[in-house]
Amino acid sequence: MKILGIVAEYDPFHRGHLYHLSEAVRRVAPDFVFVALSPCIKQRGELPLLSPSDRAKCALEAGADAVFSLPVLWTVRDAEHYALGAVSLLAKLGITHLAFGAETADDSLLSRAAQMLEDPVPSFRSSLKDALASGAGYPSALSAALSLVLPEASGLLDQPNSILAVCYLRAILRLNLSVRPVVISRTGSYHAAEINQEFPSASALRESLLRGNYEDAYKAVPEYTAALLRRRFLDHRIPDGRIPDALLLARLRSMTAVEYGSLPDLSEGMENALRTASAVSHTRSELLASLSGRRYPAARVSRLCACVLLGITKEDILNAPLPDHALLLGLRKCPEMTSLWKTLPIPVITSFTEWKQSAAPSDLAAWNLWAQCAGLPGTLPFTEKLVSI
């Protein structure tokens, strides 16, 4: 049996995602397609436009057979650990292939880079140490060291999709998996400001939708995504970004020194910079702009803000086990697939009420935060039903 795994956020699911999924299916011809989905907090520490259930529905419409939620303690992590958590979950669900995008289709180059990062030679360690000593942030230092030791990989770790691609390959190596990677060449710009209808940037789509420019955005997504987005905007079931901004700044301004010190992924002086910036910032964007730079990458600060909102500490992160259960968000009805669950090394949980017994506090906090910002009651997700088509 061949089972294709995909790690995704689908915020929202657009034509580029559809191409990626369809191309992976064409290459692998799998029996099933499983998706590990970021839930109510994404990898860059932001709230998604649509709920996990809604995004799972779009994935099923596109051809996925089952969509599972990735625990929040693995989504608010750097690319290396985000990939590790997602690949671990999918591996326990029995995937044989893992498909992901990259700016380069050179899978050999990606593999060599992953091997170097997982088993670094002395010259790489020395170059990384020198780059960090010069004041570079860790991602920049890692990229510089890799470029020196593996010149053909120069600039590879400056490309967002290639960074994740290398991290997926590192996870496969670290977990000693026999999963086969399937690299899909990324077309279009990850950070493009304008909407490319065939290969759009998800961030450009979100900005367009939130500005009320719906027409261009709807043309760049499949009809089922457009229909769902129309319904959710009409229902006002879209998070209001002003709410998490206010909650974040209020929390930062009231935290004690001990609470600041318990935050994850802090470097020297970062808590003081965060406290100072929160006192004069009016929005999360202002806060990120005042802190982000060579020393503190924007994505890192954004994830730190998500941890503040969810009450996640460095102990929570350090003690987080690799995913030990799978929360099923959506399922394509198939008797053969449901019988597969019984053979897996982890339980597959099919209802939110059952999930509540094993969920980490951060997972429940993320759902509560998303519901609050979308004007929905705190009983979400327990009013949500398993998406099935």
Query: How much strand?
Result: 5-15%
**How would you sum up the global shape?**
globular
What is the N-to-C succession of helices and strands?
A: EHEHEHHEHHHHEHHHHHHHHHEHEHHE
Mean pLDDT: 94
Q: What does the main sheet amount to?
A: 8 strands, mixed
Low-pLDDT sequence parts: none
Integer-rounded radius of gyration: 20 Å
Treating each run of at least 4 consecutive H or I residues as one helix, how many helices? 20
Q: Which percent range fits the helix content? A: 40-55%
Terminal-residue CA separation: 22 Å
**Backbone structural class:** alpha/beta
- Total beta strand runs: 8
Task: Give your account of this protein's structure.
The protein contains 20 helices and eight strands. The chain is an alpha/beta fold and 389 residues long. Strands 1, 2, 3, 4, 5, 6, 7 and 8 form an eight-stranded mixed sheet that branches. α18 links the parallel β6 (326-331) and β7 (348-349). α5 crosses α8 (160-174), α12 (242-254) packs across α16 and α15 crosses α16. The longest helix is centred in the middle third of the chain and has 15 residues, at 160-174.
